[in-house]
Design goal:
Elements: E1 4-7, H1 16-25, E2 29-32, H2 39-49, E3 55-59, H3 62-72, H4 80-83, E4 91-95, E5 109-112, E6 119-120, E7 123-124, H5 126-134, E8 138-142
Parallel strand pairs: 1-2, 2-8, 3-4, 3-5, 5-8
Antiparallel strand pairs: 6-7
Length: 143
């Protein structure tokens, strides 16, 4: 898996066209930009502008999932029971750990928010990492 970095200096909203172009290629991408530069919001905007794409946004914590659900009015949740009731959603937000409850063919693209938390000191998301590594589709890492 090769990763192409896209570095954003200010706000990602300034580069939405470039972002869409990169995401539509279906390649693994590492998106690096400063804190509070709009990475997650830009991905949500992209997803809403491309309703035919089946997209999952993965977050490290339940609190972040809950915040996005409330702030962006989108399907969001976690756990096996919640995952089993999402078959009609093309866009959803869940935790790293809940992605294992979805079929590997369920999504066209997976956006991994705060990707540096996947292997934080002493906290390894083994099942989540195994699932993501097995996918043959684009993984977009947001840091």
């Amino acid at each position: 898996m090769s990763t192409k970095p896209l570095e954003i200096k200010n706000y990602l909203s300034e580069k939405l066209e470039l972002l869409s172009e990169l995401l539509n290629k279906g390649e693994d991408t590492l998106l690096v930009s400063p804190t509070d530069s709009g990475k997650t919001r830009a991905i949500i905007t992209y997803a809403k502008q491309n309703p035919q794409r089946r997209i999952a946004i993965l977050c490290p914590t339940q609190a972040l999932v809950d915040n996005l659900k409330q702030d962006c009015d989108m399907p969001a949740g976690y756990g096996k029971k919640w995952a089993q009731n999402t078959q009609f959603f093309n866009l959803l937000v869940t935790t790293y750990d809940s992605i294992q409850f979805f079929e590997e063919t369920r999504f066209d693209a997976i956006f991994i928010d705060e990707a540096h938390y996947l292997a934080q000191a002493g906290i390894y998301r083994v099942k989540a990492l195994e699932y993501m590594m097995a996918l043959s589709k684009a993984n977009i890492l947001l840091k």
